Amino acid sequence: SLPAPGGGGGGGGGGGGSGSPQRPAPAPAPAPAYNGGGAEPARAPAELMASSRPLARFWEWGRNIVCVGRNYAEHAKEMGSAPPAQPLFFLKPSSAYLREGSPILRPYYCASLHHEVELGVVIGKRAQAVTQEAAMEHVAGYALCLDMTARDTQEECKKKGLPWTLAKAFNTSCPVSEFVPKEKIPDPHKLKIWLKVNGKLRQEGETSSMIFSIPYLISYISEIVTLEEGDLILTGTPEGVGSVQVNDEIEAGISDILSMRFKVAQQTRRS
Questions:
Q1: In this structure, is the dihedral angle defined by the CA atoms of residues 254, 259, 261 and 262, taken in order, positive or negative?
Q2: What share of the chain is helix, strand, coil (3-state, %, to 5)?
Q3: Over 99-163, what HEC string results?
Q4: What GO cellular component entries does it have (predicted)?
C-alpha cells in the first residue's frame, strides 16, 4: 500500500524509429534570427555557470530527468496499454541519479521493484520549442539508464488516479552509465539495448522500434518543458520488464559500446 503520511525513509542518493509521425500542435515558436556569426549575446550568470560544467558528469549537476513512457509498442502491450498517439512523459528529480558502485535501493513501501532499461539522451544546449530538424543540434551525447519502478505502487496510484511520483521518483530510481559523446553514436536509432538479471537475459530491444524518434521527442518535450544543458531524456523501454529482488545483480548494456552493473538492496525505513 502507499506509505502513510509522516512515514520516512533513509536512502542513498543518487519508450521512434527514424521516421517520425506528424508533429502535433501547437506549432513551435520561431527560431531566433541568425546574427551573422557575430558576438554571442550576453548570458545570465547561471547560464555561464552551467556552460563551465562538464557534460561528461551530467548526473552531478543536470536539473531535469524527463522520462518517456510506452515508447515501444511491445512494452505498451505487455503493460496492457495501447501505444500512445502523443508522447507520454513524466519527471524524476536529480536525487534519483545513481552511479555504479552504489546499490539500487528498493523503497520500504515497495513489494515489486521492476527494471526498465532505456537509452538516455543528454542535452548539450538549451532547447525551447525547437523543431525536429534542429533537435539533434541540442544533443551532447548519450547514456544507458534504468528507470527503476515500484510497480505495485504504480498500479495502486493508477487505480486511485494519483501521480506516479512514489513509483518512479524515489532515490536511486535512475541508475546511469558513463556519458557517451554523440560523435561515437552516429545513429542512436540503430542500437541494441539489453538487460540481464543474475546473468539471465530479461530485456533486449532495438532503438529502431521506438514509436517516437529522438528528434520528435526533443521537439515535443521542449514545447512544454524547456530543456537545459545537462538535462537527460529517457527514451522508453522495450518489452521484458520484470521484478528484481534484494541481492540481485542487474547488468545492462548498449550494443557493444558499454555496460554497467548494479546490486539491489533494501532501503531502511527511518524509525
A1: negative
A2: 20, 30, 50
A3: CCCCCEEECCCCCCEEECEEEEEEECCCECCCCHHHHHHHEEEEEEEECCEEHHHHHHHHHHCCC
A4: mitochondrion
Cell numbers linked to 164: 506516479
- State the Cα–Cα distance between residues 177 and 120, nearest whole angstrom: 9
pTM here? 0.81
Neighbours of 158 (CB within 10 A): 11
pLDDT at 150: 98
Half-sphere exposure of 94 (CA within 13 A, CB side): 10
Q: 123 Cβ partners below 8 Å, 6+ apart?
A: 138, 139, 140, 218, 227, 228, 229, 230, 231, 232, 233
Which CATH architecture best describes the domain 45-266? Alpha-Beta Complex (3.90)
Position 77 scores a pLDDT of: 85
Long-range contact pairs involving 53-56 (C-beta distance under 8 Å, separation at least 24) = 53/229, 53/230, 55/122, 55/124, 55/140, 55/141, 55/179, 55/229, 55/230, 56/178, 56/179
pLDDT at residue 31 is higher than 70: no
Domain boundaries of the chain, sorted by first residue: 45-266
Query: Grid cell 544546449 — which residue?
Result: 125
Residue 104, all three cell numbers: 539500487
Return d(Cα 196, Cα 237) in angstroms, integer: 14
Q: Which helix (H) or strand (E) holds 204?
A: strand 200-206
Per-residue pLDDT at 17 exceeds 90: no
CB 253 within 8 A of CB 193: yes
In degrees rounded to 5, what are phi and psi of residue 213?
-70, 165
For the stretch 227-236, pLDDT in tens is: 999 999 999 9
